[in-house]
Amino acid sequence: MKKSKILIGAAVLTIAGFFAIAADHIDAPAVAGGTSDITDIYAFQGEDNNNIVFVANVQGLISPADTDAAAFDENVLIEFNIDNDLDAVADLVIQATPRDGKMYFFGPIAPSQSGLNSTILSSSATMNDVDITAYGANAIVETNNGMSFFAGPRDDPFFMDFFRYGDIIAGDETMFSDPGTDTFAGTNVMSIVVELPKAMVGSGDSVNIWVESKRKQ
What we know:
Order of helices and strands: EEEEEHEEEEEEEHEE
Structural class: mainly beta
Number of helices: 2
Strand content: over 45%
Number of strands: 14
Number of domains: 1
């Protein structure tokens, strides 16, 4: 098995309520604009109240003109880390890696190791896949064993007046304007979505989740 090295991890979320979000647009110089750049992660209750949905978005600020040519990087592994006993160590992972027009998912399964390297846990018992949805096409969703999967371009749902934020940080402004200007309006991301039963991630009231992108070495 080939190992991968972490390039960036988004913020940790503690999920105890209905909805959680962490974002990291633009400000990751080592990978900014690259195929492993995580823009944001989401976790929320599914339409079925017994389910939870995890979303990882990568490759931010894709213009509509460039979205048709945008693609997931076959050398990048996206890993959802789930800590269900709140000790800041992943108890389960869900891995997503693209190949030949499909996104392959493995897990949730206990990781084989912790730290900067990961091995793709390619057990057929935990593997699922979905065709990557083309830009402008109807969403392709695959469901198997109570889990549902999607991968493809989507409008960036994150709202942020990034330039006003820069002015505040620089001391030139003291607050956001009302209404603000959405810096990310009209731009797209490459999105990976997993919906699964809450029982598959743990039995407690809260879990931590973080997402890492890891490039094949």
